[in-house]
Amino acid sequence: MTAPRYPAKPEPGDTVAVVSPSSGLAGILPLPFEWGLRRLREDFGLKVVEYPTTRKMNSTPQERAADVHAAFADPEVKAVLTSIGGDDQITLLPHLDRDLLRAHPKPFFGYSDNTNLLVYLANCGIVAYHGGTVMVELGRPGAMHPLTAASLRAALFTSGPFELTEPRETRTEDKPWQDPATFEAEPAMEPADAWTWHNADRVVEGRAWGGELEILSWLMMADREILPADQYAGRVLFVETSEEMPRDETVYRILRNMGERGLLRQFSGLLVGRAKAWSFQNPHHADQRAEYRSAQRKAVLRALSEYAPDMPAVFDVDLGHTDPQVVIPLGGTVRIDGPERRITVTY
Q1: Are 127 and 221 contained in the same domain?
Q2: What region holds the LD-carboxypeptidase C-terminal domain (predicted)?
């Protein structure tokens, strides 16, 4: 397989598309969406165009695929951002036109259920960007977190190496988006666990591949967009888990099955996102959050010990369902420098 190429980047003043390939949640929860659109316009200096299903719940996969096609094919649109994730984007994939997307490569931003499209685009030969949704990162109450803003701005507008910064704080609890008071102040933060390094005795570098672990497991179950194992040789795997907070045993089993498929041993390194450990359904207190994250780390290490014992890994990297959040270029280069304790991505 030919390595994915970086699409041309927009500049301030350009037009970007906002689409909802998963859920039209923007239509029933407009406050964070409008907040995020305003930041795109005022802080990032971009013009924004929406498509018919952006604020429409229960759109068909065909309708959402048509919006993705229109956004990529429009010569005025220089990048495509997603509003939010969802849970059925896998049904969109059969309706996508691979030739159309290849003919009009553009930076695409999203994560969570958008892992489906990120992996699809990488298989089309297009580097895609894991992170930066309109409703969550751009629509953050009060202000964007500075580390999030710096990473998203670099990924959106620039090309070249970007060193990730280890944060001192993290957000765990969310506030209801239906309440206007939620957006009057920044979220409460708490001290962040430091990155945890495993087998940090070497430097590894490779093309990034991964995303939300639950979605990757669905792609494998549906036999969609997963290449033969040897196609991942030397790549850097990155994984994270969602607000559905899968059990540590579930995390282990998914990785075990990747190991049985021959995938895990192909990767040269692993980045594991800081686990989301609170939700409205599971409002864990501080000790429970710490216990959940510890159990998930142990689950990953268990799988590595069985299938890739020598693999360097870094835990609690701020990718995916976390705040602050860094953007990871799927198909782009990632460098893990164990001796120097540095992670560099190339946007």
Answers
A1: no
A2: 205-336
